[in-house]
Amino acid sequence: MNILEFKNVTKTFGGLTAVGNVSFEVEKDSIFGLIGPNGAGKTTIFNLITGIYKISQGEIYFKEDPIHDLQPHKIAQRGITRTFQNIRLFKKLTTYENILTACHDNATYGIVNALLRDHKFKGQEKKLHEKAQELMGILGLSSQKNIIASNLPYGMQRRLEIARALALNPSLLLLDEPAAGMNPDETIKLMELIKEIREHFGLSIVVIEHHMDLIMGVCDKIMVLNFGQKLADGTAQDIQTNPKVREAYLGEEEEHC
Amino acid sequence: MTAFMQQIINGLSIGSVYALMAVGYSLVYSIMNFSNFAHGGVIMMGAYIGFFLLTAFKLPFLIAFGLAGVGTGVLALVIERIAYSPLRKRNAPFLYFIISAMGASIFLENIVVATIGPTFKTYPRIFSPEPIAVGNLSIGRLDLIMCVISTISLAALIYVIEKTKVGTAIRATAYSVRASALMGVNTDQIIMIVFGLGGLLGGIAGVLFGMKYTVYPQIGFITMKSFIAAVFGGLGSLPGAVIGSILLGIIETLTSGYISSQYRDLIAFALLIFILIVRPIGLMGKTTEDKA
Amino acid sequence: MNWFYIKGILILSGINLLAVLGLSLLTGFTGLFSFGHAGFMAIGAYTTAVMTIHFHLPFMVALGVGGLAAALASLIIGKLTLNLKGDYFCIATLGLGEAIRLILDNVQYFGGARGWPGIPLHTSLLNVFIIDVVGIVFLAFLIRSRHGRNMIAIREEELASQIIGIDVFKYKMKSLMISALYAGVAGGLYGHYLGFLQPKMFQIIKSTELTIIVIFGGLGSISGSALGAVILTALPEALRSFDKWRLVVYGAAVIFIMISRPQGLMGGYEITPTNIKCFLFRFVKKDKKHQGMGGR
């Protein structure tokens, strides 16, 4: 079954085509890699999936339902969430508060319940706190519980962003350059983490990355974008041997060299 | 029809003064992206300076104009240095600028109340109240002067912005403060020049306004309408500010003429809300899409 | 200084405190800036007065109706303006606040611009105090619930809030309505304290004053807002003898606060029993290494 499907999606800004007639499918429970040179339209695809940009043409399906007309928060509630290339945490809140806030959809109490501090409020609030605590543990953030997000080291901030995303119980997680600015050691740890997350939460993951080790190591399938067009897709091996991909990354090969 | 044309002429005259004030708001907004509510206080000070130069010092009319403009230009600069510059260095959010501006405006208004007093002051009569007849229409001499001086001042401003090196720098800074700074523009200096220019025109507008009506400490509030005009035309756009002001002036005089002068201010604010809902960027504003 | 005078200052502080609490939710916790809250106060004040004078409702019920009327007005205003970005929302609220005042200026039923005398003096120190306490407790409870947390999330990072499934528009609306409700009740108390209402009392300067207090107290701090309201209401009143120089000093002080202590009195922290204990603890055991719990 496909969890996500792009059908002939186009996005234009004025005269510029950021994404042109792109189609692809992401299989359920798989890790899907999205690669391509800078400006190829990778992040734009994330923005289209999450509803931050409206598509110009085409259709996007999530679990076989069209989602391209929904507002971002509705899409999130359906079970798609993401991290950002340039980290967007709730900067002045602590690690714990960041995660706890994101847990909000696991509770249903209203404002009146909150003002009266009744049974419903207390019971649900307790569950939210438990959930936040659990996520913090899984992502190894427990020791940073009361640290303000903007004071966390870079790698931890990326982890926290993932933790915050997981608080929604998503079925599809979009990671936008999760290893950016990480050293090789941290990148390997992150690879492990991504795999673990998939196992533990039963998720499908789409990941944008420039670290080829990471992409080739974890992805079941990979799509290559160039100038907003799909260049190729397939397994890691298919991509590595594809001449068009090499051309896009390394430039055209000279005839006699 | 004659009555209608008469209203239009009156509207043009008041609109041209609004334009002088509105470009001050727009100039600052185009570079610093905040609504400089202290501008009203600056305009009010211009009206007072002009008043004292004409009454106490009995200076000739045009010299009083010039000096009032210089005075308010300097005042606007001082406000920038004291109230905004420290915020700018800290990259404070726009609200802090607005609050600081409100503080400056409260300060200016009340220092006038405390020293000169809250009473209305009437400018000495400089032009004969006898209107000039053009066909069936009669044009007040003062209205004509208002139009002429405003047009000359605005033309001078446009010349500076479009044709001089400083103007190019101002336009570049309005486009992007950071990029201009990297290209070697002294943005700090440009910001001061912009405040100076805005203050200069505001002072001239203040004198014109005082001559047309009266002078009192709360004039600053009336200048709120030139701010509305700036929003109407599109904050940050100079042609927008001018067109918005002229339109607002005409709408106001038509309201006074055909409905009731009581609703004049209400119509102005209703227009503000209407434009914000329908087209928040104003008539001539630019759309921007921010990147995720 | 006699008791009557002090009582008057306390009542005024209490009324301002309530309006400031409301604005604090909107500005300090949701990150929206309004220069139209005086308009909501005006709606609350006039509605409450109509309820007590023409409908003979008990004061507390009338206050509730006044608050709801303000909230209802904010619902309409919010629908129209909450989609506007930063500065433009600010300008829109300013315009709407003024529009409300100018409309009242022209409604002869309420005495128009000349004012409306003869409003019964129902406001007392006791009922202001009780309402303030309830207002503070409710606000604190709201902030420490998922609803409050969602509002704070919007303040911190709007895009990320949407991505974690927060309906940004809805929560901004909730914040605006609750905030207007507080302002409306404060307006009702104000009218029934002075015994007189005039649209002039609700000019932009009043909205500005409320925003200044919130910032002075520190954005995102309930105790800061409360302290700020009391200090900034009482201080100018105590300086009455300076009279005409009072507002000059006030204007200069506002600029001074903006450029020198932008984080405000409390800098986002709260006065709670735990925080006080930590604070004192730090003093007592100065030599021993002790990690204070984070505030908030």
Task: Summarize it.
With 257 residues, chain A is of the alpha/beta class. Chain A has helices at 42-49, 72-78, 95-102, 111-116, 119-138, 154-166, 184-201, 212-218, 236-241, 243-250, and strands spanning 2-13, 16-27, 31-35, 57-62, 65-66, 80-82, 172-176, 204-208, 221-226, 229-234. Chain C is 71% helix and 1% strand.
Radius of gyration of chain A: 20 Å
The coarse silhouette of chain B is globular
Number of strands of chain B: 2
Question: How are strands sequenced across the largest beta sheet of chain B?
Answer: 1-2
SSE ordering of chain B = HHHHEEHHHHHHHH
The number of helical elements of chain B comes to 12
Q: Which shape of chain A, going by the Cα principal axes? A: globular
Strand residue content of chain A: 15-25%
Summarize the biggest pleated sheet of chain B: 2 strands, antiparallel
Q: pLDDT average of chain A, as an integer?
A: 90
Distance between the termini of chain B: 54 Å
Q: Which structural category fits the helices and strands of chain B? A: mainly alpha
Can you describe what's shown?
- The complex is a heterotrimer of chains A (257), B (292) and C (296).
- With 257 residues, chain A is of the alpha/beta class.
- In chain A, 39% of the residues lie in helices and 24% in strands.
- In chain A, helix 3 (95-102) crosses helix 5 and helix 3 runs parallel beside helix 6 (154-166).
- The relative contact order of chain A is 0.18.
- The mean pLDDT of chain A is 90.
- Chain B has helices at residues 2-32, 39-55, 61-89, 94-115, 141-163, 165-175, 177-182, 187-212, 219-222, 224-233, 238-258, 264-278, and strands at 132-134, 137-139.
- The termini of chain B are far apart.
- Chain C has twelve helices and two strands.
- Chain C has a two-stranded antiparallel ribbon with strand order 1-2.
- Chains in contact: A-B, A-C, B-C.
- The B-C interface holds B 33-35, 82-83, 86-87, 90, 92, 94-96, 98-100, 102-111, 113-114, 221, 224, 228, 231, 235, 262-263, 265-266, 269-270, 272-273, 276-277, 280, 292 and C 27, 33, 80-81, 84-88, 90-92, 95-96, 98-99, 102-103, 105-106, 159, 204-205, 208, 211-212, 215, 244-248, 250-255, 258-259, 262.
